[in-house]
Amino acid sequence: MLELSTRARGLAAIAVSLVVVTGCGIAGQSPSPAPTPAASPTPAATGTDTASSGPTATPTAAVTPTSEPTPVPTPAGQLDFANWPLYIDIDEESGGYPTLDQFTAESGINVNYVEAINDNEEFFGRIQPDLAAGHSTGWDIIVMTDWMIERMIRLGYLQELDHSMLGNFESNAQPYFANGWFDPGNVYSLPWQSGIVGIGYNPTLTGREITTFDDLLDPEFAGRVGMFSEMRDTMSLALLSIGVVPEEATIADVQAAQAKLLEAAQRGQFRAFYGNDYYDALAAGDVALTIAWSGDVSQMKLYDNPDVEFVVPETGGMLFVDNMAIPANAEHPIDAHMMMDFWYDLQSATTLTEYIGYFSPVNGVRDLVLQHAQEARDDGDSEWADALEVIAETSYPSADQLDNIYTYKILGEEEERQWNDLFNALISG
Amino acid sequence: MTTGRSEVPLRRLPVAQRVSRALLPIYTALVVMYLFLPIAVMIAFSFNDPRGRQNITWQGFTMENYLDVWSRPDITGPMLSSLIVAFVATGVATALGTLIGLALTRYEFRGQGPLNLLIYVPMATPEVILGASLLAMWVTVGVQRGLETIIIAHVMFNISFVVVTVRARIAGFNRSLEEAAMDLGADEWTTFRKITFPLIFPGIMAAALLAFALSIDDYVITSFVAGQTVTFPLWVYGASRFGVPPEVNVLGTLIFVVAFGFIALQILWSRRGRGPATRPIEVES
Amino acid sequence: MARRLRRLTPYLFLLPGGLWLFIFFVLPMLVMASVSLQEGSLGEGFRLTWNFGVYAEVINDWSPQFIRSVLYALIVTGLTLAIGFPIAYTIAFRGGRAKNILLLLVILPFFTAFIIRTLAWKLILADNGFVLGAAKDMGLLAPNFQVLATPLAVVSGLTYNFLPFMILPLYVALEKIDPHLVEAATDLYASRTQAFLRVTLPLAMPGVFAGSLLVFIPTVGDFINAAILGSRDTTMIGNIIQRLFLNTNAYPEASALGFVLMAAVLVLVAIYARAVGARELTVG
User: Fold this and answer.
1) Which CATH superfamily is domain A57-64+73-194+321-378 in?
2) For residue A1, which residues of chain C lie inside 8 Å, CB to CB?
3) Which of A275, B179, C94, C162, by CA, is between 20 and 30 Å from A428?
């Protein structure tokens, strides 16, 4: 079976030549730095000025979403929206998405909502070939975490937004979340929800209060600690624990942080490096303490395990902002704009927050949630009222939390590779 | 085919032999229970009524999931896609693979060595590579990924498995039966139809079953070439990181029941005398 | 005309499948081969630099995971053979009229997505689930005993998931053994054991061979069982490749690693085939 006849050798020769021919970097077409401005929504060419980058300087608070600048860019009536699981309100009974249904009723646009994203890098890896080749990815809106947005902007993979169509955003956005470090001026993205990367733990299992990152390395909890497989989250928290601000970390700092974690990993401190499945582990008690996302722990308290607590490590936690963005060459950009703006309407934003419990980037959500809580209490539904009050608390970071949270470092390609190499060595036994 | 059972009645055998005789059936029963354990858990938890996202502790019995699942297009949609892919891919792969199996075992021709390589190497390739390489090719050629590309990929990896399974059956197949038929005047096509095909049919069915199971299960390759389409394993794997709703168990249970019914029907149909595998060969005039 | 058709027949049979495999397997493989020899990154683009050094690099970096994967795969193959052979034998020889029903029972569980089955195992093997939890309450197990996140869980999951891949080929091979041959052996004064070892087993070898391949090969490249049931210390080479491809986007390294895995598997399979005398098995 392994003997090569003359014919097979001939075939091999052809194969080698094919390899050379295809070697013109098929998997990694280097995208030219600025294809996206040219790829801005084509219908917008009917008059709205989108060539200028940056937000429209003129206050557009007067522009409501329903009154459009003339000539009217027409939506296609269809929208493909990729998001993370459980990141939108669901009607448990019918399985539908009430806010999306409402949007369809108001705008006539059909939304194909798919929970296709489980991991920033995984999703990026799947759409990257299309983006590199200049094709549509099949998605009009995607929700990516801030550092990935930064990367996609740098690679030229996102479309510029036309802020004249984003009146709700202009008037309702929280200043703290808008204008992020990763996308100054919100040229390419609008915040979806935000949260903190900190520590989630179960006091009944740990036996004591957990206060800081080094508690995760305490031998007392050997084998019952969780870490994230998300490189930036884990490494940033570790960097903070050795007194380094992530934005200023050098590669030597990263090596030191990695060495610290590696020592713990090799003595079996960590049960696993989790993705989103850390939620299961914490709720079920497989781990007593783990790196966690704030909104998840709020939800867990309400629905799955009332014992759990969330804490921002003393050494510092990480703020993440998930954002809506339009990939380059999207097929229905106008509809995408309308959808994005819809989420900055106070009602929609409140419904969303009440359901998923993360920080809302929209002004006035907290007050409206409290109002709903009061109404529920008046109606006699004290359980839901309590829940809503908890949600109102967690709809915006507290002052304490704000003091102690940091943002991710922007990593160039080379640096990212170095960080990844160190991290991969850490998480693979 | 007759069974291998000897004619000595059980009670006449010495105890040791009786025990060893009973051992196999007992063992089989135990293993079947082991095989069904996760299925039983899946079915049980399809009736669970969890409050939160987790379906891992029993919180109460309900039949509602069986009603709710139909109004969850986010779950039934992927299931439908998976079924379509599985049926189509199984059909095509079984046909193509059987042809190759026949050619390889019954004919002499040049290029058998490289062909063997072509068959075996896909099975030796990690699914990640199969998936990623296909994706690279589709993007280069500019083909949008979706249901069609998934089917194509599934046929591709199934062909090898079909060939291997069918060959295990055809190898050692008694050619003298065919020769006898042809001596009696049958031409090649009739011989194939009445002798060869019925006898290798169990092997083909086994291969088809294997292909179907592989296809409906596939996660890795599908995740690369699916584009926007979501198949059931893709959806479940994604949801598993957040908490799998009981509706998933419902669909799993329903698939299980349908597969059970389908195969049971097939057995009954073959029992009734039309199937070739359980009866001696009849040479029709 | 008939004669020419006859000579063409094998080629005609081979054409559709062969073509399919060529277009959708060989061509993409060539693309991947080219990618493995490239260097660069997503941002800067990749360039074909004929960097053969990447192969040495990935072998160096990831040999523990390689060895672990091969080890697990060998264990799983052995286990499925040990567990599956008696089953296939029982069904083929003792099944009688219940043969098809038994076969149905054996393969039926595998018509559900294996992801659901693996998640069910995660539930069953949960630290404080209804199996381990009950045992711990009864004092049979230490309170911190765990199965999940250990190699045991991963190997068990793999064994379970790949059992039908062993049983089906074994059954197919055993089923066509003429039982009269066994009878003839016992008539010739062979004991039952001897008859088994000298007649049944050798005739079943095609099935053993096929089954072993069907189990070993996908097991060595699997990553789902390790991801759901395992931990850092059970990382398999499949996990590495997947991570390099999809998370780190290190396409050249990932492609190179994939080819190394393929090569290792092919070598092992060739050795195995030689040992089993597969020339007689696979050539019709």
Assistant:
1) Periplasmic binding protein-like II (3.40.190.10)
2) 270, 273, 282
3) C162
